[in-house]
């Protein structure tokens, strides 16, 4: 239009003539577009296993695309082709969202032969709005005895028909030859193993509760499974074999929620928990449950055996297939590391010490904390020491009650000043003898990396329950020139002693042990006669490589 050519424009109030100055302009373009529809089979769901006996299984998604249509399109029937053993499927329906489009007599009583299209007739006309894509899901029931594979597809020869809602004109549907995933009928199954997140070997005190003993992984294949039972097996290594007396109860957790319990009774080494809260195992997805143990107390008249290594492994499991409804049973793969129980146990930690200033003679600081369950006795410490340039003499290990290293331990452990040893051996043969038998107070090897072995002199150094004792290895230092250094390591034991089945070493005349302590199982252990000593294997805060301090000048 050309507004400047308009005339007779007058203000209604003023009566003034109004002149328009706008130039020529075009109004919106109106495009006449015919009805159009494209049909394609989605690639989702992908190829997968399904379970015989499953109901309302999704086999494919048909996409009806009217994004380029000039008007809404309506359909009353849709053909689709199924390849597979026809008799395995029944009650096949098309769904628009949650709404079934064909019900009652419109549900095919029998599908067409394999490779031939089946026509779905709708209860009501289906309208696909222009500018949209409507997705129809194909769902069928699977025979309980079904086998083989099934694929739904669209074939150009299926000749779909549609009509424009406004124009009433017949629409030639453009069909893209395409197929959904291949569905293979298989049986539901369950795998049960120990998960990689299951804790490594740990130490726990007798009487401790809710100690994580293992993490079990479940994987449901082909269908979701409702887990209803979990079988467990107990291995408690001790002089008398497997014993349920080390445990009072086992609880199964789904995250932080308890879902079942199990109790080992008498000489039984297996127990089954019928879950109080069944656990849903999603198809083809890992699920973990946590096994926590309550341990019997240890001591005079108590049921727990000190030094027992308690392993609670999965034994078997049972559940119900969510799709098939069948009972699914399986064995399990064991593999937990186990929990070793003592009356009490120590926790070690390295204490702070500057990496420079070695001329002050301080070589290493560390601390030992007794669990709240009871006091811990200490009798033997082994150190490796290497030096550069400087020389060390009169090396001593000292114990303190405070973190400031100012108040010496006053009990009878040495020379009365808190020193754990009284003197150093002068011969290498004496060092060898001490390392093997603890016959001497301390020793020093003559190798380039010197080994110092210290033991308490009269009685074990007792760390009271819940308290900490602080240790300092120090010496006289000469030759501490610039660049001089010392590296000290408190040695740990890399395996539990095999001298007894219980994990206790027996009396202190043991060989090769580096860190010797007592859980004081029934009474306070003394230096030599009690069979109540163990070593420094896998103590909390005590790495297998030991506790190392490097200091220079």
Keywords:
mainly beta; seven-stranded antiparallel sheet; 1 helix
Written description of the protein model:
The chain has one helix spanning 428-437, and strands at 38-41, 48-51, 57-65, 73-84, 89-96, 99-100, 117-128, 133-142, 149-154, 161-164, 170-172, 174-175, 178-179, 183-186, 189-194, 202-205, 211-221, 225-237, 247-254, 257-262, 270-281, 286-295, 309-321, 327-331, 339-342, 346-350, 362-370, 376-388, 391-400, 442-444, 450-455, 461-463, 468-478, 485-490, 516-518, 547-552. Strand 19 and strand 20 form a beta hairpin. Helices cover 2% and strands 45% of the residues. The chain is built from one helix and 36 strands. Residues 412-418, 422-430 and 432-442 have low confidence and may be disordered. The N and C termini lie far apart (96 Å). It is mostly beta strands and 553 residues long.
Q: How many helical elements?
A: 1
- Report the uncertain regions: 412-418, 422-430, 432-442
Computed structural class: mainly beta
Q: Which of globular, elongated, flat, extended, rod-shaped describes the shape?
A: elongated
The CA-CA distance between the termini, in Å, is 96 Å
Oligomer: single chain
Number of DSSP strand runs: 36
Strand content: over 45%
Could you estimate the helical fraction of the residues in percent?
Answer: under 10%
Output mean pLDDT: 88
What does the largest sheet look like? 8 strands, mixed
In short:
The chain is mostly beta strands and 553 residues long. It has 1 helix and 36 strands. It has one helix at 428-437, and strands at 38-41, 48-51, 57-65, 73-84, 89-96, 99-100, 117-128, 133-142, 149-154, 161-164, 170-172, 174-175, 178-179, 183-186, 189-194, 202-205, 211-221, 225-237, 247-254, 257-262, 270-281, 286-295, 309-321, 327-331, 339-342, 346-350, 362-370, 376-388, 391-400, 442-444, 450-455, 461-463, 468-478, 485-490, 516-518, 547-552.
């Amino acid at each position: 239009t050309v507004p400047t050519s308009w005339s007779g424009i007058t203000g209604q109030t003023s009566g003034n003539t109004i002149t328009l100055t706008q130039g020529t302009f075009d109004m919106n373009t109106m495009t006449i577009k015919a009805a159009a529809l494209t049909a394609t089979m989605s690639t989702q769901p992908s190829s997968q296993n399904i379970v015989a006996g499953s109901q309302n299984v999704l086999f494919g998604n048909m996409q009806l695309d009217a994004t380029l249509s000039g008007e809404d399109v309506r359909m009353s029937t849709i053909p689709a082709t199924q390849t597979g053993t026809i008799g395995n499927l029944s009650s096949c329906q098309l769904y628009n969202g949650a709404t079934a489009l064909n019900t009652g007599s419109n549900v095919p009583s029998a599908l067409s032969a394999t490779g031939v299209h089946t026509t779905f007739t709708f209860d009501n006309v289906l309208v696909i709005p222009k500018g949209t894509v409507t997705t129809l899901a194909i769902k069928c029931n699977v025979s309980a005895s079904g086998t083989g594979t099934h694929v739904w597809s669209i074939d150009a020869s299926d000749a779909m028909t549609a009509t424009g809602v406004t124009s009433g004109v017949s629409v030639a549907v453009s069909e893209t030859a395409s197929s959904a995933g291949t569905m293979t009928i298989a049986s539901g199954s369950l795998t049960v193993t120990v998960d990689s997140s299951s804790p490594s070997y740990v130490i726990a005190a007798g009487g401790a509760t809710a100690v994580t003993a293992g993490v079990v992984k479940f994987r449901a294949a082909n269908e979701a499974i409702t887990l209803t039972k979990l079988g467990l097996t107990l291995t408690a290594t001790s002089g008398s074999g497997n014993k349920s007396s080390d445990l009072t109860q086992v609880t199964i957790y789904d995250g932080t929620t308890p879902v079942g319990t199990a109790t080992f009774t008498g000489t039984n080494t297996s127990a089954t928990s019928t879950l109080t809260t069944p656990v849903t195992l999603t198809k083809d997805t890992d699920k973990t449950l946590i096994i926590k143990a309550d341990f019997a107390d240890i001591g005079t008249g108590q049921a727990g055996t000190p030094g027992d290594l308690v392993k609670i492994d999965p034994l078997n499991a049972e559940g119900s297939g969510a799709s098939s409804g069948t009972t699914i049973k399986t064995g399990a793969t064991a593999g937990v590391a186990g929990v070793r129980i003592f009356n009490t146990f120590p926790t070690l930690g390295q204490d702070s010490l500057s990496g420079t200033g070695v001329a002050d003679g301080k070589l290493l600081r560390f601390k030992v904390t007794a669990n709240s369950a009871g006091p811990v006795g200490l009798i033997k410490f082994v150190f490796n020491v290497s030096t550069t340039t400087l020389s060390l003499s009169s090396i001593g290990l000292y114990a303190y009650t405070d973190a400031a290293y100012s108040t010496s331990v006053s009990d009878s452990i040495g020379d009365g000043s808190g020193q754990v040893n009284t003197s150093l051996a002068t011969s290498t043969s004496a060092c060898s003898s001490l390392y093997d038998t603890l016959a001497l107070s301390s020793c020093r090897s003559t190798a380039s990396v010197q080994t110092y072995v210290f033991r308490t002199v009269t009685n074990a150094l007792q760390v009271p329950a819940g308290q900490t004792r602080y240790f300092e290895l120090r010496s006289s230092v000469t030759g501490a020139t610039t660049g001089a250094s010392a590296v000290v390591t408190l040695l740990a034991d890399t395996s539990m002693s095999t001298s007894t089945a219980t994990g206790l070493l027996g009396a202190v005349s043991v060989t090769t042990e580096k860190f010797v302590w007592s859980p004081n199982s029934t009474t306070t252990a003394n230096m030599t006669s009690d069979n109540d000593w163990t070593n420094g294997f896998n103590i909390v805060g005590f790495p297998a490589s030991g506790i190392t301090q490097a200091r220079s000048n």
